[in-house]
Amino acid sequence: MGRAIHVSELQTLIEYRRADVIDARIKDNADLQCVAEPRFGSRSPSDATATDSDYHRWRSATEELLASIRVLQDRARQVGLHLHPPLGGSALSRRWWHVRYARRNRLLRANYDPQAAALRAQFDRALTAYLARAGDLPAFLSEYRVQQQQRAQQEWQRRKEETEREEARARSRRAEALNAATGPQWAFKISDYAGSRSFWILLSSLDEGRADRTGLTVAEVHAALVAERAQYPYTGIIWGTETGRALEEQHRSKAAGWEALTGELIDPHPLDPSRPQRSTRYGGPSSTYGSDGGGGFSGGFGGYR
C-alpha cells in the first residue's frame, strides 16, 4: 500500500502580495509543484499514491522551501521599506512619512540593488535545493496519471468484455429455450385495464409470472388468442420480456417470430376505431400497426413488455 499525497502549486502555499524582490520570484515560480497537506484543515482527494519514502522526501523539501522563502520575505520587506509609503491617509501624512524616514530611505536606496541581488541569489539557492530533492515530482505525477488512465481503460475493457459475454450467454440461453419449446412450455394471461385488454404470451422457461393458463403448446396458446379476439377483436398482444427478445433475436420481430411458430400472421396491436387515438406531433393519428412494441397494459404482471 502506498501513501496518498496531495499536490499543490507554490502560489497556493504562501502569500506574495507585496511588490518586492522575493514576491516577484515567487510569482515567477508560482506553478512549482509541491507536496503538502490540503489547506483549511479539510481532506481533498489525493492526487497520487507514492511510497512513504518519496512522500516524506517531497514533503520535507516543501516545508524547507517554504521556511526559507518566509525568511527571505521578511528580509525583502526590511530592505524595501523605502519602496512602500503608507497607503491611504492624507497628503500631509504621506509627506510626513517621507520627512520622518528620509535618512533611512536614503540608506536603503543606496544599498538596495546589491541587497536585492543577494536575496534573489538566496531564493535561487533555496529553489535549487528543493529541486535536488523534489525535482522528480512532476515526472512522477505524469507517469502516475498515465498509469491511472491505462488501468481505467483496462477496467473499462474488462467490464465491456464481461458484459458482452453475459449478453452472449443470455442470447444462447434464449435461443436454446425457444428451439426446445415444442411441447407444453407456454402460458398466457389476459389483463383488462380501463377497457384496454392485453393478451400476454410467455415461454415458461424464460419468463416467470402468474398466468391464467400454463403448460400449453404454441398451438393451444394461439387458439386461446383466436378465441379472445373473436370476442374482443382489439385485444393487444404483449410478449414476456425474455420471450420477446428470443423471438426478435431469431426473427425480424416478435410478430414474425410468432408467425414462424404458428404459421399465422397477426397484428399485435389492432386499432379500435371506437376509441380515441393519440395524435402525433404532426397532427395525424398514431398507429402501432406492423409494430409489436410495448403497447397495451404493462402493469400488474411482473413488468413484461
Describe this entry's structure for a reader:
This protein has 305 residues and is an alpha+beta fold. The chain folds into two domains: 3-135, no CATH class; 182-305, no CATH class. 51% of the residues lie in helices and 12% in strands. It has helices spanning 21-28, 52-79, 91-100, 102-134, 137-179, 218-231, 241-250, 254-262; strands at 3-5, 7-9, 33-35, 48-50, 186-193, 196-203, 213-216, 236-239. The strands form three sheets. It has a four-stranded mixed sheet. A two-stranded antiparallel ribbon has the order 1-4. Strands 2-3 form a two-stranded antiparallel sheet. The radius of gyration is 40 Å and the shape is elongated. Mean pLDDT is 84; it is low at 280-291 and 293-305.
Instruction: State the oligomer.
Output: single chain
Q: Biggest β-sheet: count, sense, barrel? A: 4 strands, mixed
Share in β-strands? 5-15%
Q: How would you describe the shape?
A: elongated
What class would the helix/strand composition place it in? alpha+beta
Separation of termini?
49 Å
User: Percentage of helical residues?
Assistant: 40-55%
Radius of gyration: 40 Å
Mean pLDDT: 84
Q: Can you tell me the residue ranges where pLDDT is under 50 for at least 5 consecutive residues?
A: 280-291, 293-305
Strand order of the largest sheet: 7-5-6-8
Secondary-structure element series: EEHEEHHHHEEEHEHH
Please provide the count of β strands: 8
Q: Kindly give the count of domains.
A: 2
